[in-house]
């Protein structure tokens, strides 16, 4: 039997919320949890669900909070959820940018102005233009995101643009330069860019390829090694309990417990995605 390294829980700094479950208004061909309008594998979290977890997190000394899905702004409680979170710490929202209507952007601006903690937005784009982006994210999505970005710019919110390596050449020096220039052209003078590798699970396993058997971690990790993995400092809250990280949501073995506190224990890194995290130094945090 292969011995897999275990990642220790060093300190719970970050708490993630799968706030929209696996429900999304689009169906990207590279989505590592195959989110879609009809995927109810994880359900949305209510304001009460989030408030209950925030109370747990306060006791445990969590420093910051991330919200993802699916598409977070499909959750009708999203603004009240952010309001409650910002009373306790900084928050970041990962969105596909399609629902950033003017009223939502104005409400986000108001939350930012009223809170002593920061609120950050991450908007996904997977291409250098409408054609390359929509080939991955769906027809007409680029145009909707452009409206959302314009609405953000109008209220002075400068989002981080997240691009995966599904966008050809995104991770090259030239690709980065092109993307930064593209973000400037949207009206953001100080472009913010995050490039993410692909996880070969979910829809992406079909679009490109699944993991090969050799893509597995066998070597033991030192504490220094482990500290670069986000699972040593974060956990993910979903409608089905607490999971080890934002990536392995389709794996029952990645569900650690009902309570956050019970989840603060080592986890075996036996998944192909763990190989990507280690080799590429991935963190889903900004
Ligand atoms: S990658 Fe993001 S926007 Fe695309 S289907 Fe998955 S959750 Fe939705
Ligand atoms: S997929 Fe990455 S973040 Fe999740 S348990 Fe494996 S190494 Fe940790």
List strands and helices in order, with pairings.
Elements: E1 6-7, E2 14-18, H1 47-60, E3 64-68, H2 78-85, E4 91-95, H3 102-114, E5 119-124, H4 130-137, H5 141-154, E6 160-164, H6 173-185, E7 192-196, H7 203-207, H8 223-227, E8 234-238, E9 241-243, E10 255-257, E11 267-268, H9 272-280
Parallel strand pairs: 2-3, 2-8, 3-4, 4-5, 5-6, 6-7
Antiparallel strand pairs: 1-11, 8-9, 9-10
Helix pairs in contact: 1-2
Describe this structure in words.
With 286 residues, the chain is of the alpha/beta class. Helices cover 31% and strands 16% of the residues. The protein has 9 helices and 11 strands. The strands form 2 sheets. A 9-stranded mixed beta sheet has the order 7-6-5-4-3-2-8-9-10, covered by helices on one side. The chain has a two-stranded antiparallel sheet with strand order 1-11. Helix 1 packs parallel to helix 2. The mean pLDDT is 95. Bound molecules: iron/sulfur cluster (2 copies). The site of one iron/sulfur cluster has 14 residues, from helix 9.
Quick overview of this protein structure:
The protein is of the alpha/beta class and 286 residues long. It has helices spanning 47-60, 78-85, 102-114, 130-137, 141-154, 173-185, 203-207, 223-227, 272-280; strands spanning 6-7, 14-18, 64-68, 91-95, 119-124, 160-164, 192-196, 234-238, 241-243, 255-257, 267-268.
């Amino acid at each position: 039997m292969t011995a897999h390294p275990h990642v220790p829980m060093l300190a719970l700094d970050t708490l993630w919320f799968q706030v929209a479950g696996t429900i999304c208004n689009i169906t990207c061909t590279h989505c590592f949890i195959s989110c879609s309008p009809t995927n109810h594998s994880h359900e949305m979290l209510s304001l009460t669900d989030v408030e209950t977890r925030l109370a747990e997190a306060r006791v445990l000394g969590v420093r910051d909070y991330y919200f993802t899905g699916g598409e977070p702004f499909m959750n009708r409680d999203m603004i009240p959820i952010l309001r409650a979170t910002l009373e306790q710490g900084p928050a970041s929202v990962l969105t596909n940018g399609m629902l950033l209507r003017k009223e939502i952007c104005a409400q986000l601006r108001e939350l930012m102005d009223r809170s002593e903690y920061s609120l950050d937005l991450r908007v996904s784009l997977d291409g250098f233009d409408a054609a390359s982006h929509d080939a991955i994210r769906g027809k007409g999505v680029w145009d909707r995101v452009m409206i959302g970005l314009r609405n953000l710019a109008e209220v002075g919110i400068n989002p981080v643009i997240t691009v995966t390596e599904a966008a050809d050449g995104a991770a090259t020096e030239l690709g980065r330069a092109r993307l930064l220039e593209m973000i400037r052209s949207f009206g953001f003078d100080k472009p913010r860019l995050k490039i993410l590798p692909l996880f070969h699970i979910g829809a992406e396993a079909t679009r490109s390829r699944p993991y090969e058997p050799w893509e597995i971690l066998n070597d033991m990790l030192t504490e220094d090694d482990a500290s670069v993995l986000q699972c040593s400092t974060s956990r993910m809250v979903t409608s089905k309990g607490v999971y080890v990280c934002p990536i392995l949501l389709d794996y029952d073995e990645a569900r650690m417990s009902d309570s956050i506190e019970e989840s603060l224990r080592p986890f075996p890194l036996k998944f192909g995605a763990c190989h990507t995290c280690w080799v590429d130094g991935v963190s889903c945090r900004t």
